[in-house]
Amino acid sequence: MTQVQTTTPGIQCWDAATLKAEWDAGRVWLVDVREPVEYAEERIPGAICHPLSKFNPAEIKCPDDKVLVLYCRSGNRSYRAAQQLLAAGCAQVTHLQGGIMAWKQQGYPVERNPKAPISLFRQVQIVAGSLVLLGTILGATVSPWFLLLSGFVGAGLVFAGVTNTCALGMLLAQLPYNKRAGQSWQS
Questions:
Q1: How many other β-carbons are positioned within 10 Å of the β-carbon of residue 181?
Q2: Hey, which residues does 31 pair with through a beta bridge?
Q3: 12, 58, 84, 102: which has the fewest Cβ within 10 Å?
Q4: pLDDT in tens, 129-160
């Protein structure tokens, strides 16, 4: 078992083996701070979701007989969530070093949902890329006017990058399967 104290007093890092041993002993209350779509796609069994984007330390109520352990994909977001809990008055916070990636590398179990939607970012990439490809093909084979479609999508992506607002992302977030997964476009 490896428990490492970070450079921030009060934040402790556990490796995957330590978490597994403590989890098996029933001494862990596990909180996933990734976004809901990531949580819906796969998670460590028994974890609950409190995404960092909406993280409210007041909502984290760890049972007295358990150790609160935070995790995310790689350990960066869980470390930031741990800092927020410390700032809110928690004396000791633990997070999984390396996140769920380290957990999976050790071969520990995860719950997967093959029907979970892919992230909004990837959906935007697929739709925008398909429209650009379609506009290019139709522009080369049918009429050059179809190149305007590719240009329009390109201009929209530039606008989205400059303003951090994506109309396509907001539109896709309204689809029922994205709403069920709790996906939203955040600017």
A1: 24
A2: 48, 70
A3: 58
A4: 999 999 999 999 999 999 999 999 999 999 99
CA gap 132, 55 in Å, rounded: 37
Catalytic residue among 13, 62, 72, 166: 72
Q: Which residues contact 130 (CB under 8 A, 6 or more apart)?
A: none
* Residue 67, SS3 per DSSP: strand
CA 72/CA 168 separation, integer angstroms: 27
90 is known as an active-site residue: no
Q: Could you tell me how far CA 6 lies from the centroid of its own chain?
A: 23
Q: Which amino acid belongs to residue 45?
A: P
- Whether 47 and 30 have beta carbons less than 8 Å apart is answered as yes
The span from the CA of 137 to the CA of 61, in Å, is: 55
Q: Average pLDDT, whole number, for the chain?
A: 89
Which two tokens mark 39? 């949580």
Token pair recorded at residue 40: 């819906």
CA 15 to each of CA 52, 106, 108, 130: distance values in angstroms, whole numbers, following the listed order: 21, 10, 12, 41
What pTM did the predictor assign? Answer: 0.69
